[in-house]
Amino acid sequence: MNENHAKVCTSPEWAEHIQTEILPVVTRDVELGKEMLEIGPGPGAATEWLRHKVARLTAVEVDEPAAAILEDRYAGTNVEIVTGSAAELPYPDESFDSVGSFTMLHHVPTVALQNKILAEAFRVLRPGGVLIGSDSLASTGLHEFHEGDTYNPVEPASLLPRLQTLGFDAVTIIVDWTVKFIARKPGPEES
Ligand SMILES: C[S@@+](CC[C@H](N)C(=O)[O-])C[C@H]1O[C@@H](n2cnc3c(N)ncnc32)[C@H](O)[C@@H]1O
């Protein structure tokens, strides 16, 4: 991430935004279960909130220094930090009750790789499990904010067919100043 992210995504204001304007909305009607996976935790704004909602939270972060900071912070807690790419999750099928992805998909350089990450989320979810997430909407300001960094914002209208194609059902897409999404892996009796 560039310097802009280092300032904004580590700030208390960003944590408050994620924790009061995003997470309560995408979890309102959702059962997160006991075991949750977060992908792309970055400085951990969502991690800190989510870890109090589940018994065990695993977070997979591709950036080694970012992962190392979180590993130190959450040593001895219910959070396990793993360094690696969410495009190749080191977990068997049906390992988690829920998966969360916040402000990370636009940092993935291609739509194909974003789809691979969403497919991995589907694979590791238990039947009946849920994917929740959010991302920033494309804008000139956001593009400038990402100078020297990956910038590949999600087209909100594409998310419904992309998630359905992967097998998710009960897909909800909320578009306001961000895009938020909630999608379910069909239960055992439905797949
Ligand atoms: C803008 S930060 C968002 C951090 C946090 N989720 C939030 O909302 O504040 C995006 C994070 O996604 C991570 N990331 C990008 N591609 C990834 C991948 N393939 N697997 C795991 N993490 C990834 C980046 O390293 C970065 O830490």
Task: Give a nutshell description of this structure.
With 191 residues, this protein is of the alpha/beta class. It has seven helices and seven strands, in the order ααβαβαββαβααββ. The protein has helices spanning 3-8, 12-27, 45-50, 64-73, 111-124, 140-145, 156-166, and strands at 35-39, 56-61, 79-83, 96-102, 125-136, 169-175, 178-184.
Write structural notes for this entry.
The chain is of the alpha/beta class. The protein is 36% helix and 26% strand. It is built from seven helices and seven strands, in the order H-H-E-H-E-H-E-E-H-E-H-H-E-E. It has helices at residues 3-8, 12-27, 45-50, 64-73, 111-124, 140-145, 156-166; strands at 35-39, 56-61, 79-83, 96-102, 125-136, 169-175, 178-184. The chain has a seven-stranded mixed β-sheet, sandwiched between helices. Strand 1, helix 3 and strand 2 (56-61) form a beta-alpha-beta unit. It is globular and about 50 Å long. The termini are far apart. The relative contact order is 0.15. The model has no long low-confidence stretch (mean pLDDT 95). The structure holds S-adenosylmethionine. S-adenosylmethionine (SAM) binds at residues 1, 5, 9, 18, 39-42, 45-46, 60-63, 66, 85-87, 102-104, 107-108.
